[in-house]
Amino acid sequence: MSRTPKIIVIVLLVIAGLAGSLYWFVYKPEQEAKEKARLEEEEKARLEQIANEEAEANAKALAAQNKAKTTYDSLLANADAAFEQQNWEVARPLYTSALEIFPTEPYPRDQLTALEQKVALAARLAAGIIEEVTSATGRYYVILSSSVDGDLAKDYALKLLKDGTDVKIIRHYAPDHLYYRVAVEDFDTPEAAKSASETYLSTSSGVWVLKY
Questions:
Q1: Burial (Cβ within 10 Å: 0-12, 13-18, ≥19) of residue 142
Q2: Residues 6+ away with beta carbon under 8 Å from 161
Q3: Separation between Cα atoms, residue 205 and residue 211, nearest integer Å
Q4: Does the pLDDT at position 103 exceed 90?
Q5: Does the pLDDT of residue 166 top 90, yes or no?
Q6: Using CA atoms, how far apart are residues 59 and 78, in angstroms rounded to an integer?
Q7: β-bridge mates for residue 172, sequence order
Q8: How far is it, in rounded angstroms, from Cα 49 to Cα 43?
Q9: pTM of the shown model
Q10: What are the structural domains, with CATH classification, of the chain?
Q11: What SS3 state is found at 201?
Q12: Which one of 33, 44, 104, 169 has the largest count of C-beta atoms within 10 Å of its C-beta?
């Protein structure tokens, strides 16, 4: 082989080596860096989109919650006003609607319970019906009066009923007599009954607790 072809081969090899070096150490790292930057930009855009969507969802949820709270408060205000006026047919659906908005809130549920008690009380008052306890229950009753005259006990119970106090008449047999006890509340324990009886001291001076 002559000298010239050898030189050409060497030059070609050098060129090939330079090209390979440029590819592996310049071009390829540049492409990888560009690809990495592109992926990072895409990930950044994706995260920003997720953050924006979450922020939008949170804003909508907060707006819905605020709207629900505003509606809830309005329903309760109107329901309480109707309750104070003893307009049970108006108050009942308003409390029910409020409870449907926030089912775990105790206030509308408690008011509905109180309302139904008021309705039952009014119905018994209109009919002149006093609940009677004719056999032992094992409970502790707050007694406001005791009489051997059933009519006298009923008259007093009706008076309390008209004043808005729910009452019961206990037909209580004691030695030689049948007593009619007018009771206003009853409890599982004597302590609870004794504590409640103190709130009736202004109503009757003869308040006491009977287990029956």
A1: buried
A2: 121, 124, 125, 130, 167
A3: 19
A4: yes
A5: no
A6: 29
A7: 179
A8: 10
A9: 0.54
A10: 1-129 (1.25.40), 130-211 (3.30.70.1070)
A11: coil
A12: 169
Cα–Cα distance for residue pair 45/58, rounded to 1 Å: 20
Q: Are 170 and 127 in contact (CB under 8 A)?
A: no
Q: Which of 113, 166, 174, 176 is nearest to 141 (CA)?
A: 166
Cα–Cα distance between 69 and 129 in angstroms, integer? 41
Task: Classify 161 as helix, strand or coil.
Answer: helix
DSSP secondary structure string for all residues of 1-25: --HHHHHHHHHHHHHHHHHHHHIII
Structure tokens at 11: 């030059």
What span, in angstroms and rounded, lies between the C-alpha atoms of 190 and 209? Answer: 8
204 by DSSP, 3-state: which?
Answer: coil
pLDDT tens track for 116-149: 988 988 887 778 788 899 999 999 999 999 999 9
3 has pLDDT over 80: no
3-state secondary structure of 155: helix
- Taking the C-alpha atoms of residue 161 and residue 184, their distance in angstroms, rounded to an integer, is 10
Angle of CA points 172, 161, 183, to nearest 5°: 25
Side chain identity at 118, as an amino acid letter? Answer: K
Report d(CA 181, CA 152) in Å as an integer. 11
Are 208 and 185 a contacting pair, CB within 8 Å?
Answer: no
